[in-house]
Amino acid sequence: DIQMTQSPSSVSASVGDRVTITCRASQASSNWLVWYQLKPAKAPRLLISGATTLQTGVPSRFSGSGYGTEFILTISSLQPEDFATYYCQQANSFPLTFGGGTKVEVK
Amino acid sequence: QVTLRESGPALVRPTQTLTLTCTFSGFSLSTSGVCVNWIRQPPGKALEWLARIDWDDDKYYSASLETRLTISKDTSKDQVVLTMTNMDPVDTATYYCARMFTPSGYYFDSWGQGTLVTVSS
Fold it and tell me: Is the dihedral of CA B103, B105, B111, B114 positive or negative?
């Protein structure tokens, strides 16, 4: 199975801050990496597929980069609605596996 | 508009069998490439993929849980059912169903809100 390691596990930030989250895969996954946003009592939201492709309706302050084993999710200017937990997932092979999550909290 | 909604018991006793239903709309599980998956998240822990059923009735399971899981579909009702036998307190989690369109890739483009299942005597 491909192991996904996310860092940091949590980050405290203020509105307007730039936030970066890293996801590392135990083996190369090309660009088969996606990012989700989870909020309590809400359906998880797909943000980015193919490591860099922003989904329709996702604000442009979100961006993804990376290839192979290291990937980054960047929120360029944090907004109040962005306080949530973010997960990466390798989309290369089954079983599909997720990172441990990064909770973006209010500083 | 694609929607998915999970339903099932909130409380299950140890050793019992859990049955969860995913009712969806806005797409058909008869369409080539479409599949529905189950994913869970124990409290404070990461997401874990459990099972997948495809438009052509192919089924895939997590290797660690395969002996306990069964996934099935009722296309006429737009529902997917997951059963998990021999429930244990470690199976306490929020269970999600999610759609995947395999030609786009192995990821979940729409999710339900999830249903919390607690396993306790």
Answer: positive
What does DSSP say about strands A33-38 and A85-90: parallel, antiparallel, or unpaired?
antiparallel
Mean pLDDT in residue range A33-44: 96
Closest CA to A60 of A51, A69, A48, A72: A48
> What sign does the dihedral B65-A84-A30-B27 (CA atoms) show?
positive
Of B107, B110, B111, the CB nearest to A34: B107
CA distance B118 to A68: 38
pLDDT tens for chain B, 121 residues long, are 999 999 999 999 999 999 999 999 999 999 999 999 999 999 999 999 999 999 999 999 999 999 999 999 999 999 999 999 999 999 999 999 999 998 989 999 999 999 999 999 9
Least Cα distance to A100 among A19, A30, A24 occurs for A24
Locate the chain B residue with the closest alpha carbon to A96. B49
Which of B99, B63, B93, B62 has the alpha carbon at shortest distance from B80? B99
Q: Which residue in B108, B109, B113, B116 has the most chain A C-beta atoms within 10 A of its own C-beta, making it the best mutation to test that interface?
A: B108
